[in-house]
Amino acid sequence: MIPNSALLLFGPPGSGKGTQAVLLADALRLPRISTGDIFRQHVKDGTVLGREVQAIMQAGQLVSDELVNRIVESRLEQPDCAGGFILDGYPRTVPQAELLDRLLERLGKSRVVVNLLVDYNIIVGRITARRSCPVCGASYNLVSKPPQQDLVCDREGAGLVQREDDQEEVMRKRFEAYDLQTLPVLDFFREAGYRVVEVVGGNGAPEELTAAIRARLDEE
Ligand code: AMP
User: Fold this and answer.
1) Nearest 5°: CA angle at 24, between 21 and 25?
2) Centroid of ligand 1 to alpha carbon of 220 (angstroms)
3) Active site residue 163
4) 6: closest CA among 95, 71, 97, 117?
5) Which segments of 133-181 are extended strands (E)?
6) Any residues with CB less than 8 A from the CB of 214 and at least 6 apart, and which?
7) Domains with residue ranges and CATH for the chain
8) pTM of the model
9) How many angstroms is it from 68 CA to the middle of ligand 1?
């Protein structure tokens, strides 16, 4: 992959974006910026921002562009992002993509988009089986990555929980938001001439998908 790049991970909720972002960040030694994680941390810490976004997240809707953009802008200016970074869950709307485009121009970063294509039925099965540890944040999947002991975190021994926005009704709303607000971002990337790498995900091991993505990124 070209050094000093912004790697943008793109795909519907439950496509494995978050998992791939973690694995790629590790392999490529790049910081991973997940706007969803940033918001969840604020909610957990009970900050002013956390209180502002909690209800929006619980309803499966998107936080305002103005707020997300402000957070991303200050994060990308931190010194650890100087050599490149991975964005997970941002941009999700065209106005976010426009701001990011200007920001990347200013920061002198080349852009690569990884678009994860995953069958809808696989996604629904995967999201409803997703659980996490309320103490350490480790993520599990009751089907593909179960804990050693039923519904208990391997590391902390705490009872696993389901993200409120992974429940079925909220999930439907998140898909609606994806189709309406986020899919047009792909057209924006293409029209702006970004390199878009499409990779088909599915039920395989996450590490296999990471290897496939890396191979595609190294192609040019
Ligand atoms: P995620 O973990 O990326 O699925 O994000 C969880 C939730 O955080 C989303 O459903 C939104 O409510 C909010 N969120 C995260 N990133 C963004 C973004 N770029 N724009 C608007 N809302 C966001």
Assistant:
1) 80
2) 31
3) yes
4) 97
5) 139-141
6) 1, 24, 27, 28
7) 5-128+167-217 (3.40.50.300), 129-166 (no CATH)
8) 0.86
9) 9
